[in-house]
Write a structure and sequence with these properties.
Keywords: Cell membrane, Membrane, Transmembrane, Transmembrane helix
Shape: elongated
InterPro entries: DoxX, DoxX-like_oxidoreductase
Number of domains: 1
Structural class: mainly alpha
Main location: membrane
Membrane topology: Multi-pass membrane protein
Organism: Undibacterium terreum
Number of helices: 7
Largest sheet: none
């Protein structure tokens, strides 16, 4: 019981900033690994299968997806321009859920909706003090 009491009194363990760090790192890693990395590794195949909901060209759609799912998660994980970097991710996920897959039930689209919640929370809350943004006074 004494150990639990010490942990609760230690500000690093009860810090919302630690929660934001965890949210940034895990959300960014998940998005990068599940969606971004396969697009880069299998670019030609992805180019043939990616949806183009606004008729801007498959190449543009894929490059925007790579930007939002590879480069933005790296910035978010590091805590660099965090709120700004979350916006393309939110935009991409919103298009995917509302324009590309509007017929999906909540259960079918739960991964996308959860990612929207994660990156929406990051955009609203910011990176927290364990970030490069905070070290530069921009959190």
């Amino acid at each position: 019981m004494q150990t639990a009491s010490r942990i609760q009194k230690n500000p690093i363990f009860s810090s919302p900033d630690l929660g934001l760090l965890y949210l940034r790192l895990t959300g960014a890693l998940l998005l990068f690994y599940v969606h971004g990395l396969p697009k880069v590794l299998h670019y030609s195949t992805e180019l043939q299968h990616i949806e183009d909901p606004f008729n801007m060209g498959r190449a543009f759609s894929l490059w925007f997806a790579i930007f939002a799912e590879v480069f933005c998660p790296i910035l978010i994980a590091l805590g660099v321009l965090t709120r700004l970097a979350a916006l393309p991710v939110i935009g991409l996920l919103a298009v995917a859920m509302l324009a590309v897959h509007p017929d999906w039930s909540i259960a079918e689209g739960q991964f996308g909706w959860l990612l929207l919640i994660v990156f929406g929370a990051i955009a609203l809350a910011g990176p927290g003090r364990y970030s490069i943004d905070a070290q530069r006074g921009r959190a």
